[in-house]
Amino acid sequence: xxxxxxxxxxxxxxxxxVNDPRIAYLDGNSLGRLPQATKDRIQQVVSQEWGEDLIGSxxxxxxxxxxxxxxxxxxxxxxxxxxxxxxxxxxxxxxxAAWALLQRRGNRKTIVTDAANFPTDLYILDGLRQQLGSDxxxxxLVLDQSDHSQVNRALADAINDDTAxxxxxxxxxxxxxxxxxxxxxxxxxxxxxxxxxxxxxxxxAIPLDLGNAxxxxxxxxxxxYLNGGPGAPAFIMIRGDLIRELSxxxxxxxxAANPFQFGAIYEPASGIxxxxxxxxxxxxxxxxxxxxxxxxxxxxxxxxxxGWGLMQQFFQLYDERLQSLGFRLxxxxxxxxxxSHVSLSHKDAWQITQDLIHTYRVVxxxxxxxxxxxxxxxxxxxxxxxxxxxxxxxxxxxxGTFRSHPKQARGVT
Length: 413
Ligand SMILES: Cc1ncc(COP(=O)(O)O)c(C=O)c1O
Hints:
By secondary structure, the chain is α/β, with parallel strands linked by helices. 40% of the residues lie in helices and 13% in strands. It folds into 2 domains: 4-30 and 300-404, Aspartate Aminotransferase, domain 1; 38-296, Aspartate Aminotransferase, domain 2, CATH 3.40.640.10.
């Protein structure tokens, strides 16, 4: 186990903006901190590239950004250069990738997913079911997400010759359960079904090897562990040998082979660019790169090792101080089956969350009806922040300070 001394020295923390060190910010799994270098990069894009160079910046610096960052993200997830690009939102990329894979479904009729998947994933899959034809069925499985053997068994029962697509989030946004990505991918491929992973809660937090697992497609957010900024564009990954076989349901000009020839007939780009749609949002796109660069510099192995040390510290504090106070640990304790956030349920979770923020300077988030989520962002989370969170929960409940907050959940956390 990594010692507290080690985990209290986050070697990359000084590369981020930390205005008030008294605040324990444990919400980097929702919105990552601002990298120092992003301020300079944005300043450069706005003042120089936009302000002075204007349209010339497209050729000089803007056009290659989406693929360049895509290649860097590819290195973080074990994909190859040319398999990833940054564009649109995770929701839109999920739609494009799922639609593309479903075009090849033949007579297969079932989309297998997790009933506890993130809502946008469920909505999009159900939307596709409605749009693509009455023959399709969505099968959201209710899985006991505590260990791989149970989950894999349930998936092995559900995936069969009728499966048109398996679509799962690698790490569950609520519980923090991490699916056995290589094992489940193999299960799907064993039945010749394609698999699409949503990596929003794992990219930048845990090492991934999509290439080795032969994953067909993946999508994910850049504003969480990659620290790309609020609403930053997402990424899409398509396995190299599939790119030319799959098409984009929204054939926009930026996905065309030669956008600046302005041809009347759409001809898709031969590479991953075919999954682009329209003009990339350069300011948001440029803001992603410094966070991705920091993650590449740190390396996923080091980050996971540090992050897991902090997770273990949290589990231990839960055992010693919180378990007896009505908190329940929802996150698996095994490294193979946990992402990088700790979720505790409590019947007064909303009020405790408010109390942590307003009384104890601890920022987690709340996921209804009863979960408090603590993101461990290995680039900058400190052991002292984990301790502050656990002590604050203990104090909030034993001293009853949470009761001063309204019971009704409101707004974003
Ligand atoms: C698993 C997962 N997928 C997708 C999203 C969000 O997608 P988008 O960026 O399109 O809002 C989230 C947001 O938290 C998420 O947790």
